Sequence to fold (161 residues):
Amino acid sequence: MQAQADPFIVPVCHEQIEILYQDEDILLINKPTRLLSLSGKHPLNKDSVHFRLVQDFPTATLVHRLDFGTSGVMLVALNKKVNGILTKQFQARTIDKTYTALLFEHVSGNVSENEGRISYPIVKDRDNFPLQKICYEEGKEAITHYQVIERTIKPKASRVL
Fold:
């Protein structure tokens, strides 16, 4: 049985990757939204953070990813030694990641609790890429601690950290 190519074709991302910090071992970059971290399985999904970076930094490897629809800071290793060190830190969850999100009424509106913890096992939804789904059999535990930092009435929304 032949594997099918991923049917999802990402729209072209015209935004550039911004280099925030660079030394001989690492890059800190700002990934734009709607850019894959790694090239997709479909041949038309070649454009990605990794694909763009290796043009100028041939030894660049990603030690973590951000979702297609998420923008933000990414840490990139520039050599194998540092890649190994950082990968172990991410696997051991000794590196903290912080996200800010604005939740509008049609998603969640005003979040009732001031802070909380969300924990579910998630996996890529093979039928609806780039979405993910909760899957207790195959999913990887994803833990989110959140804190409401602002609530608005019009539009009804919560900004969470």
User: Anything to note?
Assistant: The longest strand covers residues 140-152. The chain has a mean pLDDT of 87. The two ends are 45 Å apart (CA to CA).
